[in-house]
Amino acid sequence: MTDRPWLMRTYAGHSTASQSNALFRRNLAKGQTGLSVAFDLPTQTGYDADHVLARGEVGRVGVPVGHLGDMRALFDGIPLERTNTSMTINATAMWLLALYVVVAEEQGADLRALTGTTQNDIIKEYLSRGTYVFPPGPSVRLTTDLIAYTVARMPKWNPVNVCSYHLQEAGATPVQEIAYALSTATTILDAVRDSGQVPPERMGEVVARISFFVNAGVRFVEEMCKMRAFARLWDRVALERYGITDPAQRRFRYGVQVNSLGLTEEQPENNIQRIVLEMLAVTLSRDARARAIQLPAWNEALGLPRPWDQQWSLRIQQVLAYESDLLEYGDLFQGSVVVAAKTEELTAGAEAEMAKIAGLGGMVPAVESGYLKARLVASHAARRARIEAGELKIVGVNCFEATEPSPLTANADTAVHHVDPAYERAVLADLDRWRRRRDEAPVRAALDRLRADAARPDVNLMDATLACARAGATTGEWAFALREVFGEYRAPTGVGAAPAGVASARELAAVREAAHATARELGAGRLRLLVGKPGLDGHSNGAEQIAVRARDAGFEVIYSGIRLTPAQIAAAAAAEDVHCVGLSILSGGHAELVPEVQWRLRQAGAGDIPVVVGGIIPPADAARLRAQGVAAVFTPRDFGLTAIVGRIVEVIRLAHQLPPWPAGQAVTTQPAAAATIEG
Fold first, then answer.
1. Whole-prediction pTM value?
2. Among 47, 126, 132, 165, which one carries the catalytic annotation?
3. Is 194 a residue of the active site?
4. pLDDT for 93-117, tens place per residue?
5. Given this model, what pLDDT does residue 502 score?
6. Cα-Cα-Cα-Cα dihedral of 229, 235, 241, 247, to 10°?
7. 539 labelled catalytic
8. Catalytic one among 40, 48, 537, 638?
9. Which residue from 100, 393, 413, 486 could staple onto 134, CB 3.0 to 4.6 Å apart?
10. How far, in Å, are 156, 231, 250, 541 from residue 186 at the CA level?
């Protein structure tokens, strides 16, 4: 009998709710079988569109949802009772699910029939994407309350999607990805069990509704074995730790987005074959096949994909599922000695790492101590060093670089989608209208109830959140009411505890010599570099790698982590008397945020400090930034970290009118050529 195809999704959303609704409808008409909603960064981090930190971020990397009206517009004409909707949302997952539930009720849907997923995995946000809001303890409570609510009232909904995808993007090895994801799952399940909100006899339903969202890289044999190891260990955890005797409830249910870390700006057409190979890792093995798949677009290292690019990725899935004979056979690797050995190796390694985390007291203490972040920063640094040394070959990047001009990128500025800044103004105007037209008294009463319930750890917060949604509260109002009770949190950066890099000793020594000499010429003990992440972009991997490499090259590095305003960055640069400011922005907000940082520096009397920028920045934008006085722009094309740090030394020398180092020569002979300050 032929198996049913997996659920096919495209991660989508941008500009406004109505624009995203039109995109959803087009994707469904093309044969997509489920929705995967991308929310913008203000929505993910609990800010309204008019908050100072939201400037330049509205509608960039996802759809802005600021209130119930936006959620209505997002799903207008889409029957939620017949739609499987995945929502990539974590810190504000409870709020977005509440808005979704109210819209479903307005459509007349039976909540017990709703199918879909809220990612709702806050723990990995402290380690990778950075869209956390509250401290770990209260955040786990929100996750627990949402799970308990859905088990009671939405039995077909997946209330948590334990996400190791972003851990791999942050540098996790396959062993770390398995160990950290399963340790997160046990942390959440323990919290649900210990909360007393779910009767012991119903814990099997909780386990059965937990799903996973996994990354698949291009080493597809290893990745396939990783999925088999995941399934084996999850079955063991469910049986031995929670006593789940029903094999169906112990099944490892997972969805996949294949790796974006390996997508390249150089020869981006090669990304198509990378995506295909990565998809095979999670489809070839029937016993460990993904239940849902979404593929990135070939041009995501260049910018925001266009609808046509997303269609291409959807068609890749459809060709495999409907044209090939893959689904007609059982597991192709049953009995394979190679696969069995690799699976056992990954299983044993993951169990050992899980034991270390348990020894620290579990995932929350391991996050708070900085242990996990330091491990990821170190793993990512080791991978980057292998690329720089040529040990890990990336076609078109550090080998086989000769190429014909690509017709796909003949006009680089039309090869990606551009979000019109007018959409941000439209969202702000809509938010203002929403506030003016609503009845304020019910909103105030609902928010007061939310604050009161949050102060009582024995109360499930979902009912109070639903009351806020129905009353017309906004995303920022809901989140700030909880901030008043829970406080905010800044996670460890992992930079200070990261070991010294393993870059080319000769190249690093040359840059270190130049940095020390430049510091002496300027009368400074060491060159000081401020690495800043303005706005809400939490992808800090590249910023952390630059900070570590600059430290190893003799710089004093000032790096306070993510989510800073331009004013805070400029004030810190002036107070620390730094020699250079390096800004990292992946969200597309560079056009707004970089000029504001420059203006703030001038206002602080520090306008002579050179600014360099890294991110996914189209060529035309890069040219504009340089014309505005940015000293250097780095994009995913720039993968030599030591070379980049050497370039920063050159920028500092030029800013202080010092001759090149050494006279007439560049600091480093290697090209600053992938993800750099951008993450």
1. 0.89
2. 165
3. no
4. 999 999 999 999 999 999 999 999 9
5. 54
6. 180
7. yes
8. 537
9. 486
10. 21, 15, 13, 26
